[in-house]
Automatic annotation (TrEMBL):
Keywords: Oxidoreductase. It comes from Candidatus Methylomirabilis limnetica. InterPro entries: Ald_DH/histidinol_DH (IPR016161), Ald_DH_C (IPR016163), Ald_DH_CS_GLU (IPR029510), Ald_DH_N (IPR016162), Aldehyde_DH_dom (IPR015590), ALDH-related_metabolic_enz (IPR051020). It comes from the Bacteria. PROSITE patterns: ALDEHYDE_DEHYDR_GLU. GO terms for molecular function: lactaldehyde dehydrogenase (NAD+) activity. Belongs to the aldehyde dehydrogenase family. This is Aldehyde dehydrogenase. It holds the Pfam family Aldedh.
Amino acid sequence: MRMYAAGQWIDAEKKINVLSPYDGTVVDRVPCADPGDVENAMEGAVRGARTMGSLPGYDRYRILRAAADLIEARSEDFARTITLEEGKSLAESRFEVSRAVQTMTLSAEEAKRLHGETIPFDGAPGAAGKFGFTLRVPCGVVVAISPFNFPLNLVCHKVGPALAAGNAVVIKPATDTPLSALKLTEVLLEAGLPADGIACLTGLGAEIGDALCRDRRVRKITFTGSRDVGERICRMAGIKKITMELGGNSPIIIMPDADLDKVALAVAATGYSNAGQVCISTQRVLTSEKIYGDFLDALKPKVAALTTGNPLDERTKVGPMIREKEAIRVEEWVNEAVAGGAQVVTGGVRQGAIYAPTVVADVSPDMRIFRDELFGPVVAVTRFDSIDEAIALANDTIYGLAAGIFTKNLEWAMRFAREVEAGNLMINWGPQWRADLMPYGGLKESGFGKEGPRYAVEEMTELKLVCFHLAG
């Protein structure tokens, strides 16, 4: 596929192979953009920002609504593309496409709802005769940098609200998974988006991503990815609006009154989808000493039943990781924990880029699979004695993206909600749950700003204050 900038589909002599994570075959080839392509894209985006800013909200709604319909009509093609380039199972890819349709639909509706509010200046001393209101206006040029693990829906979460708010957007998709974003660009143009309203540059993040983030013509950056890359972007960006959706090592607390069958089902569902490559995937399972053994007995068969293999096979539940080197890293972390006294309950086997769904018990808080973001198909189980210890363990991390608790005790549930340091809190389910309309974002070093079309539109607009100084 070709990349798109300044109203044209562009090729380049230097190419990047898009490889199947499952077998390493070449799925497609895309151009490797250079600094000249970045400048071309930025010049087009500046023009596009003027065009988009003058486009009525209802027209933006119609474009995004038409794009949602086109994605839905081509859902199987999008799903196969996601599976081929990213490696998740077809069932998970189809679900991602359905979510992308919802994200674009929600974004379309927000295009009709941009508004300000009146300001009661007469409530301030000496301000009689003043009448004020606010206007919400587009930022201008938005740079959207997306990760590999949801190559369609997370792009939609950036592009949809940016366009709904009247901005032009430059997409930098993950180098490993650019095809879904390029197909989304095709769909938006077919839906009637002005030619300069969007650009999609494929290439290396250290070259074109850095150049985009430093560019003074960019007013807003929205990034989803690792904590380290996010910090680097913040340091280089300068004076810009920034949304950071970064990593996590999400805990789930299992209190002694929990329904263990329901808990085991939730951990199996929220710890291993997309081979654990989800920033809110269940990673740390904090389990009451009173039910520790019973929980492991309930969890083991559910995890062992998760079939691995070719993600295009309808029977496969867990596909490969994005690259073999990532599966090797997960294997090393698990082996390191075992050497430190932890035990593998099930799994712990790697074949190429596929790492078997794994449960590691007796994990201590000083182990890497507890402290860092694993981003793989492993859950680490740790004991606790009290709700105080459980909350302290949950908070013993630099991250604060998502957390869950299982309990029937209202007091425990409310303590969890008030005291656990995370942006998304789930009661009686695992941390990996997201409705695309909700405000989504983390605390601490998991980032700042919110996604979800209604909330992202606010992040992608600026507020102006207007005051009339009226006579007498």
